[in-house]
Specification:
This protein is mainly β and 372 residues long. It has 2 domains: 191 residues, no CATH class; 133 residues, Immunoglobulin-like, CATH 2.60.40.
Length: 372
Amino acid sequence: MKHTVINLVLILLTLMSLSNCKNNLDVLAPGEESVSVYGILNPNESVQKIRINKVYLTSDDAISIAKDENQINYGPGELKVTLQRFVSGSSIPALTTITDGSKKEIVLTETVVTTASGSFNQNQRIWQTNDRLYNSGEYKLTIKLVSSGKEITAQSVIIDSVKPTNKMPFIYHPISYPMHGKYDLVKYPIQLNALINYSILTATQKIEFKSVINAKLYEVVMRFHYKNISLNSDTTNDYVDFNFFTVKSVSLKGDENLNVSFTASDFYNNLATEISKKNSSNVKSRISNYMEYIIFAGTETLETFLEVNKPSNTIAQDKPYFTNIMGGVGIFSSKSKSTITHDLASDFIDQIGCNSATKPFLFLRNDGIFCP
């Protein structure tokens, strides 16, 4: 019975996530080698990374092969990996990187990284660049096998980040709604309106935002930052995430009103659940710090890839492959990230210290003492 390394690769790529070309993957002949690609560009990030592996059918054990770095990784210098940018449907490459105003092609450098243990060998060769990308246009990925000259290509639109709105809490203004650490309540009393206050337990809260052009998939994270004070009075920073269900826009035109909602009680219960998983043996007290709101946006191609490759809960396990890699398998797409931070109202800080769900975790009230 033949085993395929392709299945393992696609499962791995799906777990690693957050051009509109959709191709069915033809079954490889035994011994025939192909290329697996995982590349999600993000113009908000300072480093872009693309993972490229070998895939093929074999009569040997697929898991054993996946553990062999020489069979799943390309060797040094075997591939040349480049990025080009195109705008307004032109076939002529445009300026590709903000870092160098004259560059029309980025040649990625290769390196070996150590990944978490799992089905694959922990030593993985990736290709990366420190060049800053534009947040518009389309990027084309070209992978050239140096020995044969064969090229594998993929193309994807690049998407901009979600912009601040006029709705709390996803709003920013340097005076009325400053970011965390920039509040001056004496000079600007109006900034009280920008403090986060989830002290009313039954109130329904919303995080509202607008969609961006060419983005389909949105993930919202509410990140609560706090400080741990150890028994010897050392201070360390930590955080807990509140993750929401994925939101999808109706169209790709942008400017669509989207939101996620929750109750304040949901926040306290989530905080208690997540912080209970952390090591608290050396913690003397905790200080509530600030709230961060993160919105990731992803392309329709990325949304389709994740949808096709999500785990099945039915007996029928045969699933179609999805790839937008011409001459290979995998995904080349883009996502973006937008962040807003706000300081916390004193009533909210007091409620964190005194709420029945979070009180056992030693959060101090706003006045610096424990709740009775």
